[in-house]
TrEMBL record:
Protein name: Ion-translocating oxidoreductase complex subunit G
Quaternary structure note: The complex is composed of six subunits: RnfA, RnfB, RnfC, RnfD, RnfE and RnfG.
Modified positions (FMN phosphoryl threonine) in chain numbering: 186
Requisite cofactors: FMN
Domain of life: Bacteria
Enzyme Commission number: 7.-.-.-
Keywords: Cell inner membrane, Cell membrane, Electron transport, Flavoprotein, FMN, Membrane, Phosphoprotein, Translocase, Transmembrane, Transmembrane helix, Transport
Membrane topology: Single-pass membrane protein
Record bears the keyword Membrane: yes
Localisation per UniProt entry: Cell inner membrane
Domain FMN-binding: 101-203
PANTHER family, alphabetized: ION-TRANSLOCATING OXIDOREDUCTASE COMPLEX SUBUNIT G (PTHR36118:SF1)
The protein's role, per its UniProt record: Part of a membrane-bound complex that couples electron transfer with translocation of ions across the membrane.
Amino acid sequence: MSSKTSMAMVATLGFVTALSGFLIVTVFQATKPAIEENKRLAIQQTVLEVITGATADKHFIINGQGELLEAAPGMKGVNVYAGYDAQGKLLGVAAEGSAQGYSGSVDTIYAYTPACGCITGVKVIKQTETPGLGDKTITDKAFVANFEHLEAKLDAAGKALANAIVAVKHGSKQHPWEIDAISGATISSKAIAKGLNGSAQDVLPKLVPLLSKIEGAKP
């Protein structure tokens, strides 16, 4: 093969690579708004599902200074989603939790009800656990019942949960902040508990002082 032929092949390969990269970036940029909108709609639907009775929602950001702001594209901070009834009364606030499971992250959206200081609903929005085991966290009625009234009260200083949310061996639950794990899906159960605890420990101390502002906001 002559040097000219080799150079031509290299040039062609370089052109194809550059063109492929350009097309990938172009397609990504073109589809990004649609992807973000679909994600927003999916989260909105889930928020209305986990906050019992909610018919309207509002997305807020708690920024690094602890300020509550109406969410806008590109904003950085903690995402919280308020759920209201038809009369505009605040019923609860939803937040996101995530922790590593057996084969990937287990992501959730959970509802916090200020009136009881408890988590009153959880939806798994992403999980890649072993089929038939990890998906029990979505379908097992006894496990889902853990989240009808899971205690998430703050300590006296309001800086952390009074009791960490933990998963315990199936059948050994004794306290309202414990999650009765599923037999055969302990890792997935613990991942959900870890995700909820990590999120609640971080989000609730920031959220609770802002509840009056969230209650006064219009959905």
